[in-house]
Design a protein that fits this description.
Elements (H helix, E strand, L loop, with lengths): L6 H9 L34 E3 L9 E5 L5 E6 L9 E6 L2 E7 L9 E6 L2 E7 L9 E6 L2 E7 L9 E4 L12
């Protein structure tokens, strides 16, 4: 059984300071953001699994769910110690497939990130706090390639922006 990530690793994952895995060339979904099913402000399932007290203060701050083979399938963390999940990491076959920052954490708005084969392919953010994504990022081959923005709050992008300078995604951009 693999040990759970430590708090510094979790903070790096939740704020986007760590890479998700090895870089591979993976095609990005080509559908516009409005054609994809929306994420919701509800996390990928309520805290479930084995509760853990990682900091030893007597309160649950993490929940670990395991697949039938014993591998971690979901990690849910309460970073601000209020009893509610702040970050949800979903794994399939040992690979991170989804990362959710459930509500604003240290300045980072609620964000839903989707990974394929360890590669970030899509990121959606709720920058205005209404529970719906209003910024969609598309990534391909380790690069941010397009940003779609909903500036009139109707749930559909009304502005498409090219990626700034098409620079490679760095750990700080994830």
């Amino acid at each position: 059984m693999r040990p759970l990530p430590t708090l510094p690793v979790l903070i790096a994952l939740s704020t986007g300071l760590a890479c998700s895995g090895p870089r591979r060339v993976v095609p990005s979904p080509t559908a516009p953001a409005s054609a994809r099913p929306p994420f919701t402000s509800a996390p990928a399932g309520a805290p479930s699994g084995t509760p853990e007290d990682g900091d030893g203060d007597g309160r649950t701050d993490a929940w670990v769910a395991r697949a039938a083979d014993g591998s971690v399938s979901r990690l849910t963390y309460d970073l601000d110690r209020d009893g509610a999940p702040d970050v949800v990491l979903v794994f399939e076959g040992g690979a991170l497939v989804r990362k959710e920052i459930v509500h604003r954490v240290e300045g980072v708005p609620p964000t839903w990130s989707v990974f394929e084969k360890g590669e970030l392919v899509r990121k959606e953010r709720d920058t205005d706090g209404d529970g719906r994504a209003d910024v969609w990022e598309r990534h391909a081959n380790g690069r941010l390639v397009q940003i779609e923005v909903d500036s009139d709050r109707d749930g559909a992008p009304d502005r498409v922006e090219p990626a700034p300078s098409a620079a490679p995604s760095t750990p700080a951009q994830k």
